Amino acid sequence: MSCEMVVENPNRTEQLISELASVWEASVKATHMFLNERDIIALRSFVETGIKEVDNLIVAYENQKPIGFMGIAQGKIEMLFLEPACIGKGIGKNLVTKAIQEHEVSYVDVNEQNPHAVDFYKRFGFVVYERTEFDEQGNSFPILKMKLR
């Protein structure tokens, strides 16, 4: 898969939000092995709200279908998820590069139990500066707070 188009701050219709939440769900099922089905169901509404409300939403498309998205707020990547078939194809790299260069991003939070994501951000120069025992919802999923060197 390749990314044909990137759209910043598209009209956040209910259809787009649902499609992006489905991208999120497929992505976490492929990469967040520490989450069970109950966790994913519980988190989906939180993710949908995040998609609706994040300051800057950037969506990657292929054949007019969303294949990935990134949310940015106040210099921080709040979310970055790709269809599993798109992982490792350079789309995430392009989105993060765009975030750093065009949106002056210097922070990201990553689940400690997702070492591939931690390594991904380290390749851009992000380093861990803090660890929390719980995620934003109070679940016992440790978070690594990372900042750009």
TrEMBL record:
Q: Which PROSITE patterns match?
A: GNAT (PS51186)
MF-aspect GO terms? acyltransferase activity, transferring groups other than amino-acyl groups
Q: Which residues does the UniProt record annotate as the domain N-acetyltransferase? A: 15-149
What Gene3D superfamilies does this protein map onto?
3.40.630.30
Q: Which UniProt keywords apply?
A: Acyltransferase, Transferase
Output the SUPFAM superfamilies linked to this UniProt entry.
Acyl-CoA N-acyltransferases (Nat)
Matching entries from InterPro entries are given as: Acyl_CoA_acyltransferase, GNAT_dom
Q: Name residues in a coiled coil.
A: none
Q: Name one Pfam family in it.
A: Acetyltransf_10
Name of the protein described by the UniProt record = GNAT family N-acetyltransferase
